[in-house]
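Appendix C reproduces, verbatim, an entry submitted by the partner laboratory led by Prof. M.T., so that reviewers can inspect both the input and the predicted structure.
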Amino acid sequence: MSIFGVEEFETMFREEYRRCLSTALQIVGDAEAGRDIVSDSFAAVWKNRDNIDAEKMRGYLYACVRNKALTHMKHIRMSDSLDSGAHIAVADDGDADLMLRESRIEAVERELDTLPERTRYVLEQCYYRRRSYRDVADELGISTNGVKKHIVKAMAHLRSALT
């Protein structure tokens, strides 16, 4: 395995940043998210540089960008699904049903209060505050799969309680 030091990393960054950003933008379509994805990908390469053969570093970088962008889009789709589900749960059937709408909102809030504290916290951070699974996982000291399990648990509870 050849050595991949600071100079090689800086050279790769200068040469590949635009192409990586273009790849991320093609997938996510959002400049800010694309920059975050590329930054996270370069950070992952730097963090794992001792475990990656220098000749495969660029391929590893592009795989990181693609995977992080796809994960981002999956998170967005799940968030949109939650948002549309919330709209269904609190759909306004006209001004005449304002009381019904308010009771549905109260029902959702009551059910959120019945979730275990950690599960509720994960759901609030990921969907209401739009934090990434990785950020929440790092904060709580768990894996991103742990975050996903909390989300699945919360969504299953809400679906069963509100349908």
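The chain has a mean pLDDT of 82. Additional entries are available on request from the coordinating office.
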